[in-house]
Amino acid sequence: MTYETLRVEHDGSRARVTLARPDVRNAFNAAMIAELTACFGELADREEMRAIVLAGEGASFCAGADVNWMRASVDASEDENRADAQRMATMFRAVDECPVPVVGRVQGVAFGGGVGLVSCCDVVIAAEDASFCFSEVRLGILPAVISTFALAKIGRGQARRWFLTAEVLSAARAREIGLVHEVVPPDRLDAGVEGILHAVCSNGPQAVREAKALIRRVAELERGAAIEHCAETIARVRVSREGQEGLRAFLDKRLPVWRRRGGSAGTLPTAGGEPTGERKA
After folding, report:
1. Is residue 213, in this structure, part of any structural domain at all?
2. Measured between alpha carbons, how far is residue 25 from residues 44, 61, 279 in Å?
3. What is the CATH number for 209?
4. Is residue 265 assigned to a domain?
5. Distance between alpha carbon 248 and the CA centroid of its chain, in Å?
6. Residue 184 and residue 196 in contact, taking contact as beta carbons nearer than 8 Å
7. Do 193 and 217 fall into the same domain?
8. Could you tell me if 18 and 40 lie in one domain?
9. How does pLDDT run across 94-112, given as a tens digit for each residue?
10. Are residues 113 and 10 in the same domain?
11. What does the pLDDT look like over 160-201, one tens digit per residue?
12. Considering the domain boundaries, does residue 269 fall inside one?
């Protein structure tokens, strides 16, 4: 599939999805929303995929909604605005619910919907000079669509400040509230992302997917049902082919097959390097 607003690069079992509208700080428009939805849907269906990096081309990760797209919404009806919001929510869900671990690489600004994308990533590495903002109330609107994803990341207590004030958060403060996992110097951003990729890809591929699914499912269940679900899940995974291989490798003091196959090998191109793929999946 060919994309106009994204660049998708593959390196074995890894992929890098880059928002490619640097002239507008990678702001969303209708095309990008549709393409991100389709791209993550396609990557989710690839069994060999073990990690995805979500990045932004140029100086910023994502500045939120495109001005021209917002201008069109001024004259839209309530029903048309609802349809737009639902399409954006579908995009966020495609990223958030992707069974493959998603690592966010954040530089520059992540405002509005850009913070929504950050909230949908499993692990987020940010440059120490990056900034974040739930900026919607400045425009007389609110962070409604992204709230489902952001609240799961930062909790209601933090949202009660940052949703209402639209203050700009530094990368360090974003880490304090749980929006970001690691903050690194700008020139160490790619190295920080690579470290997470190496860690993720050193583990059992299906185990990682199961662990990601478990987090979501347990949060949805009441305690008794959650305990039962966890017991059923670990029993099923222990007798699976991968579970048996991992346990036997540990007992035999050898590397499991996914490590011996070089599952953690391979590196994605850095932001400053030559791209290894075209604008297609």
Report:
1. yes
2. 26, 7, 18
3. 1.10.12.10
4. no
5. 33
6. no
7. no
8. yes
9. 999 999 999 999 999 999 9
10. yes
11. 999 999 999 999 999 999 999 999 999 999 999 999 999 999
12. no
Q: What is the 3-state secondary structure (H, E, C) of the chain?
A: CECCCEEEEEECCEEEEEECCHHHCCCECHHHHHHHHHHHHHHHCCCCCCEEEEEECCCCCECCECHHHHHHHHCCCHHHHHHHHHHHHHHHHHHHCCCCCEEEEECCEEECHHHHHHHHCCEEEEECCCEEECCHHHHCCCCHHHHHHHHHHHHHHHHHHHHHHCCCEEHHHHHHCCCCCEEECHHHHHHHHHHHHHHHHCCCHHHHHHHHHHHHHHHHCCHHHHHHHHHHHHHHHHCCHHHHHHHHHHHHCCCCHHHHCCCCCCCCCCCCCCCCCCEEC
Residues spanned by the domain of 126: 6-200
Handedness of CA 36, 58, 125, 246 (dihedral sign): positive
